[in-house]
Amino acid sequence: MTEPHREDRAASFERGAGAYHAARPGYPTDVVRWVVPEGARDVLDLAAGTGKLTAELVGLGLHVVAVEPSDAMRAELVGSLPGVDARAGTADATGLPDASVDAVTVAQAWHWFDPPTASAELARVLRPHGQVAVLWNIRDDETDWVGRWTEIVHRGDTLTTVYAEPALGDRFTAPEHATFRWAAPMRPADLRLLAASRSHLLVLPDDEREALLDAIDELVATHPDLRGRDTVDLPYRTECWRALLA
Ligand SMILES: C[S@@+](CC[C@H](N)C(=O)[O-])C[C@H]1O[C@@H](n2cnc3c(N)ncnc32)[C@H](O)[C@@H]1O
After folding, report:
1. 224: CA distance to ligand 1 center in Å?
2. pLDDT of residue 160
3. Distance of alpha carbon 170 from alpha carbon 51, whole angstroms
4. Cα–Cα distance measured from residue 122 to residue 104, given in angstroms and rounded to the nearest whole number
5. Residue ranges per domain, the chain?
6. Residues 114, 166: contact at Cβ < 8 Å?
7. Looking at the predicted structure, is the pLDDT value of residue 176 above 90?
Protein backbone atom coordinates (compact mmCIF):
# COMPACT_ATOMS: atom_id res chain seq x y z
CA MET A 1 0.00 0.00 0.00
CA THR A 2 1.37 3.45 -0.84
CA GLU A 3 1.34 6.16 1.80
CA PRO A 4 -0.98 8.96 0.83
CA HIS A 5 0.45 12.45 1.20
CA ARG A 6 -0.90 14.59 4.03
CA GLU A 7 -2.19 17.07 1.42
CA ASP A 8 -4.20 14.29 -0.31
CA ARG A 9 -5.68 13.27 3.02
CA ALA A 10 -6.55 16.88 3.88
CA ALA A 11 -8.27 17.24 0.49
CA SER A 12 -10.07 13.87 0.72
CA PHE A 13 -13.11 15.33 2.49
CA GLU A 14 -14.27 16.60 -0.91
CA ARG A 15 -15.27 12.95 -1.59
CA GLY A 16 -16.92 12.26 1.75
CA ALA A 17 -19.04 15.32 2.53
CA GLY A 18 -22.38 13.47 2.69
CA ALA A 19 -21.06 10.73 4.97
CA TYR A 20 -19.31 13.33 7.11
CA HIS A 21 -22.43 15.39 7.64
CA ALA A 22 -24.60 12.34 8.33
CA ALA A 23 -22.30 10.51 10.72
CA ARG A 24 -19.83 12.82 12.48
CA PRO A 25 -20.69 14.21 15.91
CA GLY A 26 -21.43 17.81 16.74
CA TYR A 27 -20.24 19.67 19.85
CA PRO A 28 -21.92 20.03 23.27
CA THR A 29 -22.97 23.51 24.35
CA ASP A 30 -20.46 23.70 27.23
CA VAL A 31 -17.66 23.10 24.70
CA VAL A 32 -18.98 25.79 22.38
CA ARG A 33 -19.22 28.31 25.24
CA TRP A 34 -15.64 27.52 26.30
CA VAL A 35 -14.15 28.08 22.84
CA VAL A 36 -15.65 31.56 22.36
CA PRO A 37 -14.79 34.42 24.73
CA GLU A 38 -17.49 36.33 26.54
CA GLY A 39 -18.55 39.43 24.62
CA ALA A 40 -17.44 38.05 21.25
CA ARG A 41 -19.62 39.00 18.29
CA ASP A 42 -17.77 38.14 15.07
CA VAL A 43 -16.36 34.62 14.83
CA LEU A 44 -14.39 32.89 12.08
CA ASP A 45 -15.06 29.15 12.03
CA LEU A 46 -12.01 28.02 10.06
CA ALA A 47 -12.08 24.65 8.26
CA ALA A 48 -15.79 24.70 8.97
CA GLY A 49 -16.47 21.53 6.97
CA THR A 50 -20.18 20.79 6.77
CA GLY A 51 -20.90 23.23 9.61
CA LYS A 52 -21.01 20.96 12.68
CA LEU A 53 -19.48 23.63 14.93
CA THR A 54 -20.76 26.55 12.83
CA ALA A 55 -24.34 25.55 13.64
CA GLU A 56 -23.62 25.62 17.37
CA LEU A 57 -21.92 29.03 17.13
CA VAL A 58 -24.87 30.43 15.20
CA GLY A 59 -27.14 28.94 17.85
CA LEU A 60 -25.40 31.11 20.46
CA GLY A 61 -26.38 34.20 18.44
CA LEU A 62 -22.87 34.87 17.11
CA HIS A 63 -22.15 36.35 13.68
CA VAL A 64 -20.15 33.59 12.03
CA VAL A 65 -18.07 33.52 8.87
CA ALA A 66 -17.39 29.91 7.85
CA VAL A 67 -14.23 29.40 5.79
CA GLU A 68 -13.73 25.99 4.16
CA PRO A 69 -11.66 24.96 1.11
CA SER A 70 -13.73 21.95 -0.01
CA ASP A 71 -16.63 22.86 -2.32
CA ALA A 72 -18.52 19.69 -1.38
CA MET A 73 -18.13 20.25 2.38
CA ARG A 74 -19.15 23.90 1.97
CA ALA A 75 -22.18 22.87 -0.08
CA GLU A 76 -23.39 20.68 2.81
CA LEU A 77 -22.90 23.63 5.17
CA VAL A 78 -24.84 26.02 2.94
CA GLY A 79 -27.59 23.40 2.56
CA SER A 80 -28.14 23.08 6.30
CA LEU A 81 -27.29 26.67 7.31
CA PRO A 82 -28.51 28.74 4.34
CA GLY A 83 -28.16 32.11 6.10
CA VAL A 84 -24.51 31.67 7.05
CA ASP A 85 -21.69 33.54 5.32
CA ALA A 86 -19.67 30.60 3.92
CA ARG A 87 -16.53 31.30 1.91
CA ALA A 88 -13.82 29.36 0.14
CA GLY A 89 -10.46 29.75 1.84
CA THR A 90 -7.71 28.02 3.73
CA ALA A 91 -5.81 28.40 6.98
CA ASP A 92 -3.00 30.08 5.04
CA ALA A 93 -5.32 32.53 3.27
CA THR A 94 -8.74 33.00 4.84
CA GLY A 95 -9.60 36.00 2.68
CA LEU A 96 -10.83 37.95 5.73
CA PRO A 97 -9.73 41.55 6.34
CA ASP A 98 -7.14 42.42 8.99
CA ALA A 99 -8.44 42.63 12.58
CA SER A 100 -12.00 41.68 11.61
CA VAL A 101 -13.03 38.96 14.11
CA ASP A 102 -13.17 38.57 17.89
CA ALA A 103 -12.55 34.82 17.84
CA VAL A 104 -11.44 31.98 15.58
CA THR A 105 -12.45 28.35 16.06
CA VAL A 106 -10.65 25.41 14.46
CA ALA A 107 -12.46 22.12 15.05
CA GLN A 108 -10.98 18.78 13.94
CA ALA A 109 -8.63 20.51 11.52
CA TRP A 110 -5.48 22.01 13.08
CA HIS A 111 -3.59 18.79 12.20
CA TRP A 112 -4.09 19.60 8.50
CA PHE A 113 -2.53 23.08 8.84
CA ASP A 114 1.02 24.36 8.59
CA PRO A 115 1.22 25.84 12.14
CA PRO A 116 3.51 28.84 11.49
CA THR A 117 1.53 30.01 8.44
CA ALA A 118 -1.85 29.38 10.04
CA SER A 119 -0.83 31.16 13.27
CA ALA A 120 0.32 34.20 11.32
CA GLU A 121 -2.98 34.29 9.41
CA LEU A 122 -5.00 33.99 12.64
CA ALA A 123 -2.97 36.77 14.25
CA ARG A 124 -3.73 38.92 11.19
CA VAL A 125 -7.53 38.46 11.16
CA LEU A 126 -8.07 38.64 14.94
CA ARG A 127 -8.83 41.94 16.67
CA PRO A 128 -6.47 42.93 19.53
CA HIS A 129 -6.79 40.40 22.39
CA GLY A 130 -8.98 38.18 20.22
CA GLN A 131 -9.08 34.45 20.93
CA VAL A 132 -8.23 31.36 18.91
CA ALA A 133 -9.55 27.96 19.98
CA VAL A 134 -8.44 24.58 18.63
CA LEU A 135 -10.48 21.49 19.49
CA TRP A 136 -10.89 17.84 18.63
CA ASN A 137 -13.55 15.25 19.40
CA ILE A 138 -11.67 12.09 20.33
CA ARG A 139 -13.40 8.74 20.85
CA ASP A 140 -12.86 7.07 24.21
CA ASP A 141 -11.22 3.84 23.06
CA GLU A 142 -11.31 2.31 26.55
CA THR A 143 -14.83 1.06 25.77
CA ASP A 144 -14.24 -2.34 24.20
CA TRP A 145 -16.32 -1.96 21.02
CA VAL A 146 -14.98 1.56 20.45
CA GLY A 147 -11.40 0.30 20.69
CA ARG A 148 -12.19 -2.46 18.19
CA TRP A 149 -13.82 0.04 15.80
CA THR A 150 -10.76 2.30 16.06
CA GLU A 151 -8.39 -0.61 15.36
CA ILE A 152 -10.29 -1.38 12.14
CA VAL A 153 -10.42 2.20 10.83
CA HIS A 154 -6.67 2.62 11.42
CA ARG A 155 -5.65 -0.61 9.67
CA GLY A 156 -2.91 0.25 7.16
CA ASP A 157 -2.92 3.93 8.15
CA THR A 158 0.65 5.27 8.01
CA LEU A 159 -0.15 8.92 8.67
CA THR A 160 0.56 10.07 12.22
CA THR A 161 -1.97 12.54 13.54
CA VAL A 162 -1.28 14.39 16.78
CA TYR A 163 -4.13 15.88 18.76
CA ALA A 164 -2.15 18.03 21.16
CA GLU A 165 -1.53 21.63 22.18
CA PRO A 166 -1.31 23.67 18.98
CA ALA A 167 1.96 25.48 18.29
CA LEU A 168 0.52 28.99 17.96
CA GLY A 169 3.83 30.83 18.33
CA ASP A 170 4.76 33.94 20.26
CA ARG A 171 1.97 36.16 18.92
CA PHE A 172 -0.38 34.27 21.31
CA THR A 173 -0.53 33.66 25.05
CA ALA A 174 0.28 30.14 26.29
CA PRO A 175 -2.73 27.94 25.40
CA GLU A 176 -5.18 27.03 28.16
CA HIS A 177 -6.50 23.46 28.02
CA ALA A 178 -9.81 21.83 28.95
CA THR A 179 -11.32 18.37 28.44
CA PHE A 180 -15.06 17.73 28.14
CA ARG A 181 -16.48 14.20 28.38
CA TRP A 182 -19.79 13.35 26.73
CA ALA A 183 -21.46 10.72 24.53
CA ALA A 184 -23.13 10.81 21.13
CA PRO A 185 -26.09 8.44 20.75
CA MET A 186 -26.06 6.70 17.38
CA ARG A 187 -27.45 3.72 15.52
CA PRO A 188 -24.89 0.88 15.35
CA ALA A 189 -25.53 0.67 11.58
CA ASP A 190 -24.17 4.22 11.27
CA LEU A 191 -20.77 3.10 12.52
CA ARG A 192 -20.12 2.07 8.91
CA LEU A 193 -20.90 5.58 7.67
CA LEU A 194 -18.76 7.10 10.42
CA ALA A 195 -15.85 4.94 9.23
CA ALA A 196 -16.51 5.87 5.60
CA SER A 197 -16.19 9.58 6.47
CA ARG A 198 -12.57 9.23 7.62
CA SER A 199 -9.74 10.53 5.46
CA HIS A 200 -7.82 7.22 5.62
CA LEU A 201 -10.77 5.37 4.07
CA LEU A 202 -11.56 8.15 1.61
CA VAL A 203 -8.17 7.81 -0.07
CA LEU A 204 -8.08 3.99 -0.16
CA PRO A 205 -8.72 2.01 -3.37
CA ASP A 206 -12.35 0.78 -3.47
CA ASP A 207 -11.57 -2.86 -2.63
CA GLU A 208 -9.44 -1.96 0.41
CA ARG A 209 -12.08 0.49 1.67
CA GLU A 210 -14.84 -2.12 1.26
CA ALA A 211 -12.77 -4.67 3.21
CA LEU A 212 -12.54 -2.26 6.17
CA LEU A 213 -16.24 -1.39 5.96
CA ASP A 214 -17.10 -5.10 5.90
CA ALA A 215 -15.02 -5.53 9.06
CA ILE A 216 -17.06 -2.73 10.68
CA ASP A 217 -20.30 -4.49 9.67
CA GLU A 218 -18.96 -7.71 11.17
CA LEU A 219 -18.17 -5.90 14.43
CA VAL A 220 -21.68 -4.41 14.55
CA ALA A 221 -23.27 -7.81 13.86
CA THR A 222 -21.24 -9.76 16.42
CA HIS A 223 -20.13 -7.54 19.33
CA PRO A 224 -22.42 -8.16 22.35
CA ASP A 225 -22.66 -4.43 23.11
CA LEU A 226 -23.72 -3.59 19.52
CA ARG A 227 -25.62 -6.61 18.16
CA GLY A 228 -29.37 -6.01 17.99
CA ARG A 229 -29.23 -2.55 19.63
CA ASP A 230 -31.31 0.35 18.29
CA THR A 231 -28.89 2.95 19.62
CA VAL A 232 -25.59 3.01 21.47
CA ASP A 233 -23.67 5.82 23.16
CA LEU A 234 -20.36 6.60 21.49
CA PRO A 235 -18.20 8.10 24.26
CA TYR A 236 -16.11 11.14 23.39
CA ARG A 237 -13.77 13.51 25.09
CA THR A 238 -13.39 16.88 23.45
CA GLU A 239 -9.89 18.26 23.92
CA CYS A 240 -9.84 22.07 23.66
CA TRP A 241 -7.15 24.73 23.73
CA ARG A 242 -7.64 28.50 23.68
CA ALA A 243 -5.19 31.39 23.55
CA LEU A 244 -5.38 35.15 23.21
CA LEU A 245 -3.62 37.36 20.72
CA ALA A 246 -0.90 38.82 22.95
C1 LIG B 1 -12.42 16.77 9.86
S2 LIG B 1 -13.07 18.14 8.96
C3 LIG B 1 -13.67 19.23 10.25
C4 LIG B 1 -14.87 20.03 9.84
C5 LIG B 1 -15.56 20.82 10.94
N6 LIG B 1 -14.72 21.83 11.52
C7 LIG B 1 -16.10 19.90 12.03
O8 LIG B 1 -15.75 20.09 13.18
O9 LIG B 1 -16.87 19.00 11.70
C10 LIG B 1 -11.58 18.90 8.45
C11 LIG B 1 -11.81 20.03 7.48
O12 LIG B 1 -10.58 20.75 7.29
C13 LIG B 1 -10.56 21.20 5.96
N14 LIG B 1 -9.18 21.54 5.63
C15 LIG B 1 -8.19 20.71 5.27
N16 LIG B 1 -7.06 21.41 5.04
C17 LIG B 1 -7.35 22.72 5.30
C18 LIG B 1 -6.59 23.94 5.25
N19 LIG B 1 -5.30 23.95 4.93
N20 LIG B 1 -7.23 25.09 5.54
C21 LIG B 1 -8.53 25.09 5.91
N22 LIG B 1 -9.28 23.97 5.96
C23 LIG B 1 -8.70 22.80 5.67
C24 LIG B 1 -11.14 20.04 5.17
O25 LIG B 1 -11.61 20.43 3.90
C26 LIG B 1 -12.25 19.56 6.10
O27 LIG B 1 -13.49 20.15 5.79
Report:
1. 35
2. 86
3. 30
4. 7
5. 6-139+158-184+232-244
6. no
7. yes
Mutate to test the pocket of ligand 1, among 5, 57, 108, 202 (most ligand atoms within 8 A of CB): 108
Distance CA 144, CA 166 (A): 30
Q: How confident is the model at residue 26 (pLDDT cuts 50, 70, 90)?
A: very high
Model confidence at 2: pLDDT above 50 = no
Q: For residue 5, count other CB atoms closer than 10 A to its CB.
A: 11
The response to whether residue 90 sits with its C-beta less than 6 Å from ligand 1 reads yes
Is the CB of residue 236 below 6 angstroms from any atom belonging to ligand 1? no
The per-residue pLDDT of the chain, averaged, comes to 96
- What's the whole-number mean pLDDT along residues 59-70? 98
Residues 124-150, mean pLDDT to the nearest whole number: 97
The pLDDT of residue 3 is above 50: no
Q: How far is the CA of 225 from the centre of ligand 1 (A)?
A: 32
Residue 108 CB less than 6 A away from ligand 1: yes
Distance in Å, CA 69 to ligand 1 centroid: 8
CA distance 33 to 72: 28
Distance 13 CA to ligand 1 centre (A): 8
Tell me which of 3.10.180.10, 3.30.540.10, 3.40.50.150, 3.90.660.20 is the CATH number of domain 6-139+158-184+232-244: 3.40.50.150
